[in-house]
Amino acid sequence: MSRTSLAAGAVLAVAARAALPRLLRLKFARDVTALNRGDHRGLLSSYADDAVLRFHDGDHRWAGDWVGRDGIDAFLRNLTTAGFQGSIGDVSVSGPPWAMTVMARFDDHVDGPDGERLYENRTVLVLRTRWGKVVEHEDFYADTGEIVALDRRLTALGVAPVPRPRP
Fold first, then answer.
1. How much is the pLDDT for 66?
2. pLDDT at 24
3. Do residues 80 and 162 make contact, with C-beta atoms less than 8 angstroms apart?
């Protein structure tokens, strides 16, 4: 292998690595736009069959571990049923493709039927992937009390939670 080929390969690898956060942000933005319309299939397809979504503990419908694609499907349906609207902010990536960590800022809100803002928060999503599929997902909220208050408001409005699948 010539030095020119080696240098060209190194430059290409660095350029590809620099483009990865932008490409992931575009994918997340597309999937979140669909989620905002009530379609969570794009996001769900990003998860491995044995993935785990961990949401901070608390007394609300999203708390705890959501295991496997069926569990994550129920979690995402709870988001769409509640009317979550979100947007992706900064995305950071570290690690190799077979063990990558992705961190993304996710700003979200829920408006009531009369347009009143019921909830607004900022989240950091930490995703651990294996060859492009999410295997572990953790959500970290700026204000965890807000999600508890939202759950109570949704219950008062008659929005029932989607039940968790049984293992």
1. 96
2. 82
3. no
